[in-house]
Write a structure and sequence with these properties.
five-stranded parallel beta sheet; 15% strand; four-stranded parallel beta sheet; Rossmann fold; 13 strands; single chain; alpha/beta; 2 domains; 12 helices
């Protein structure tokens, strides 16, 4: 149970990342890379980094996507995809970074997302290691910029531009194919349930965007917070329920959820949490999966 609520906190925090590589253009002042990061700081790298540490699952996935994984010498404990990350040194979690381990890796740059505190950023920079914050996008469409920025940093700009274009085109195609609002099935994603309360994705979240790109309606699209009342849930009585694979049995066998129409009709489907809980490249797998569940059964 403790693990489950740690995951909930991680999700909420996120809502609030050589064959194809080539050398990027050098800034005219001789700086390899200069950019205003997500903390609104002008960050500069004098030379191309050869040793990169990522403390963001989304960023780690993009590093692999653009073909720069050989430069990845360290990742966070939460960076578990693709499977090759198992072979990369872990430097702790988002809130318990092992600074001694981090320093021993001699990184040229540390790439972070939204979950790292300013205190930890300051601590890393005091060790003489540049930190670049690339906040995980709140929308799938915004992933394109993350891909391009990481491509520039890792000297894989050409591959990054190619993948960024493909991502944008995929999002645009899904938006064009979306059915009329009245024809959409209502999908409820179970973020949390049980004695501690019920939680689902509210409006203006990447989870809502995933569901909408799949051609469905998010059951929480009128909510402004992650909490959902039982009364609200039963009034909506969603057509489809999506729940993490490890939670499906517990959810479908627990009262009063057993009274929901979707539960009675066996319309509760398991999903890999890594596809949907945080903004990442795997969100497209969630889009395709939910679309298939809703319209291609």
């Amino acid at each position: 149970m403790k693990k489950k609520y740690s995951l909930l906190l991680l999700i909420f925090g996120f809502i609030l990342y050589f064959s194809s590589c080539h050398s990027p253009k050098v800034e005219k002042d001789g700086i390899f890379f200069s950019w205003e990061d997500s903390y609104h700081r002008i960050v500069k790298l004098d030379s191309a980094p050869h040793r990169i540490v990522s403390i963001s699952p989304a960023i780690t996935e993009v590093v692999f996507l653009v073909g720069a994984q050989d430069k990845l010498v360290g990742v966070s404990d939460f960076c578990n995809y693709p499977p090759e990350t198992e072979k990369i040194t872990k430097i702790g979690g988002m809130h318990n970074i092992n600074f001694e381990q981090l320093l021993s890796l001699h990184p040229d740059v540390v790439l972070i997302g939204s979950m790292i505190s300013q205190k930890d950023v300051d601590a890393i920079e005091k060790m003489g290691i540049p930190v670049i914050c690339i906040v995980e996008e709140s929308s799938l469409e915004g992933m394109s910029e993350m891909i391009e920025i990481i491509g520039r940093i890792s000297e894989c700009e050409s591959k990054a531009q190619e993948e960024s274009k493909k991502w944008s085109e995929k999002v645009a195609q899904l938006q064009e194919k979306a059915p009329n609002p009245e024809d959409r099935k209502t999908v409820y994603y179970v973020v949390g349930f049980g004695d501690a309360g019920d939680f689902t994705a509210p409006k203006n979240t990447h989870i809502q965007e995933i569901i909408e790109l799949a051609g469905a309606r998010n059951a929480g699209d009128t909510l402004s917070s992650w909490n959902i009342s039982r009364e609200y849930l039963f009034n909506i009585d969603p057509d489809i329920i999506i729940v993490r694979s490890e939670d499906k049995e517990a959810f479908t066998s627990r009262y009063p959820y057993t009274l929901l129409t979707a539960v009675k009709n066996n319309k509760v489907f398991p999903i890999e949490s890594g596809w949907i809980d945080v903004v990442s490249l795997r969100n497209m797998s969630a889009v395709d999966y939910i679309n298939k569940i809703c319209y291609k059964q």
